[in-house]
Design a protein that fits this description.
Chain lengths: ~300, ~300
Amino acid sequence: MTVLTLPAQPGQNTEPAHLPWQRMVWVTWRQHRSMLIGVTAVLAAVSIFLLIAGLKVHHDYSALINCRPASSDACATKNSSFNNADWTMGNTILILMNLAPVLLGIFTGPAVLARELETGTFRYAWTQGIGRVRWTIAKLTLLAVVITILAWAFSQLFAWFFDPFLGFEGMNDLAKTVFDTRGIDFAAWTLVAFTIGALLGMLIRRIIPAMAATLGVYLGLDLLTWLVLRQDYPVAIDTTNAGLFNGPSTPNSPWILKTWTIGNTPWWRYIPVSRFWPMQLIESGWLLVLAIALGAATVWLVRRRAA
Amino acid sequence: MNVIETADLGKRYGKAWALRDCTLAIPEGRLAALVGPNGAGKSTLMNMAVGLTLPSTGTVTLLGGMSATAPAMLQDIAFMAQDAPLYKNLSVADMLHLTKNLNWRFDHARAKARLVDLGIPLKKKAGKLSGGQQAQVALTLALARRPRLLVLDEPLAALDPLARQDFMGTVMTAMADDGVSVLLSSHALADLERVADFVVVLGGGELRIAGDTDELLAEHRLLTGPASEADRLAGLLSPIQVKRAEAQAHLLVRTGGPASAPVPPGWEAHPVSLEELVLAYLRPTGIGSSSASFPRTELTEVTR
């Protein structure tokens, strides 16, 4: 007589099919905490500097605009000091601020996957019970959220620091170098830099080349946006009212896109500063969609990876 | 039940086949040795078995028919890759905690106790441990997941003889205590000769032979006789390998079929060792063999 015994089925235990996501919070923190602490420390140090410098800039600015009588020598000195010393510092920091998203991106994104591939630890990580797809989604999402929030908070401090300079020639909320650093745009660009880095880290599989490639791709996208895309956001207004464009540069000066004439009538196409938030939402919106697409491509590559 | 089954399994990188036309079945409860020189396709086969690599052709299933790429699969198999990759900057205790968080089943207490028994300091960074200790940590992590199948890619390569013995001791204990099935690859057969009850021989990206060790040994024998008759006999018996030394010739033959015939007069039959058998399949010089020019340099790996 034969006794049939059923073989144990794989996964015979009463375990749900998937591990809870919370487990990945500890994993991500433990594996990336040096990077996260490093980024936070650098941002904190720069923030302290911005705070101190910002207090001086705000103090100088308020002394300047409250100076009476405005034509006095004392006021002229204050004016010259603000226009030179303060502005030199403000402008330098503005330029660095324009590079900050990509710097944040290249020091955080490429290593997430390229380090695993470079050291061979992906063979450990991707054969654990959680599975490599969930491992990748969890890590990328958690890191992206943390880095984006840090970038947003940092950009708010910078925006406060830079406020007094907004009346300068060509410097207002819509100026090319200023727009990126305010509102939610800075955070969105940082998120995109991170996801470009993660994808290139997966594609190139080596950290340093992936960092270089991330810089290149980011600058290309940034230039494309500056020179081509941003002026075509559907917020521009056409007008024949020449009065809008006279007078000195102020924080409210519009961004003039082009002028032309029909018959003898001059026409202007411009974007008023009041359209700042619609423009921010448009730009951050497509950057967010791009970031999600890049993240999805990275996960797809991890799933498909054949080596 | 078979723990691993492949059918026409192949992997191609560009134009080169790392493994091709591999059909094999490894039964449950075995310590299966995957042997062959470097570049034979051992790692490729293992990576496909654990879902790290997708096959170019054919299929591989595990534990009685589950797809190697099914996510649930990873709860029942544990893989230890070549060179025991650990996060070098994490402490041993962190590696335990990490692995616990990445898996449903994880016997934390037992893993910890085992590492303490082995004298491996839990606070030490994984990267600061010796090669033998790193291998033991990786093995402990794999076993603590209580897998049904343990896949070990060249785990002994970087270890000294004492560490090899310790490592294999741990593997054998896990098999006895928990009924784990093991697939272990090595280019050094000597470590496995006494413990492997199933062998899979790969050479040049092809499966040369696979089977139960005892059955294979019983099916093969070495015939020794005068060199002058070697060609005639080889024609009759289709030997796996023919070796000539002065006046004598040695023919390694598989019984069943023509070779079951009685030993011809003037010839003696001897049982073969596992090492002789594996080498014969890796360096077949039998009549009609197409692989007579198996590279000699690769063989030094196998012969130690």
